[in-house]
Design brief:
Layout (H helix, E strand, L loop, with lengths): L2 E3 L10 H20 L5 H23 L13 H12 L4 E3 L4 H25 L9 H13 L4 H12 L2 H31 L13
Antiparallel strand pairs: 1-2
Helix pairs in contact: 1-2, 2-4, 3-4, 4-7
Membrane topology: Multi-pass membrane protein
Pfam families: Ni_hydr_CYTB (PF01292)
Subcellular location: Cell membrane
């Protein structure tokens, strides 16, 4: 991750895959946060789409252009603290990829996405498939019916399962993700004002 002075590098845009996956992830997170109900069919399918998009971005981190690869912005607390010292000293640099603080934020957001997606799939199962405990659940329901339990009893058991540890981790991770996104936006605004660099423009459609 190399730094240059502001005047040494022309404004550039991220490549098409980075831009598309970035805004698609934003759209999926916003949709499930605001427009769908947790656990609904729509919420689950948006989650599957998010998993596919996120997987593409991670794959692109291995085979994409140099500035999009993981090697271009490795997470480094040491470099992040050095970057903070640069900010305090009034030094202005432009990086070929994310700056060190931005890199830490990217990996923090990706970690939250990974946990959120994993717990969501663990609860809902894979598309077109059954949860790992589906067979056991069906057996339990048959046993309930044989003992004369009501539909209400089955519903109560399902609700307890949905409110288990996985659901709690899923919700906590989602809330943490919203906080990180807010910090990310604040960082973008700060860097734009400090460097005069149009960071948002780099993510918009158009030529690089």
């Amino acid at each position: 991750m190399t730094a240059t002075t502001i005047d040494e590098q022309r404004p550039r845009r991220w490549d098409t895959v980075v831009r598309l996956t970035h805004w698609a992830i934003v759209a999926a997170v916003v949709t499930n946060a605001i427009f769908t109900e947790g656990g609904s069919r729509t919420h689950i399918w948006v989650g599957y789409a998010l998993a596919a998009i996120f997987g593409l971005r991670l794959l692109w981190g291995l085979m994409g252009p140099p500035e999009a690869r993981f090697s271009a912005f490795p997470p480094s607390p040491r470099r992040a603290f050095a970057h903070i010292r640069e900010i305090l000293a009034g030094e202005k640099h432009q990086y070929s990829s994310h700056n060190p603080l931005g890199a830490l934020m990217v990996y923090a957001i990706w970690s939250c996405l990974a946990v959120m997606i994993a717990t969501g799939i663990a609860m809902a199962g894979f598309p077109g498939g059954l949860r790992a405990d589906a067979g056991h659940q069906q057996a339990r329901e048959i046993g309930i019916e044989r003992t004369g339990a009501t539909v209400g009893d089955r519903k109560e058991r399902d609700e307890k399962r949905e409110e288990g540890p996985l659901s709690e981790v899923h919700e906590i991770t989602a809330n943490l993700l919203y906080v990180l996104i807010a910090l990310h936006l604040a960082g973008v605004l700060f860097e734009t004002r400090r460097n005069g660099r149009q960071i948002v423009v780099a993510m918009l459609p158009g030529r690089r």
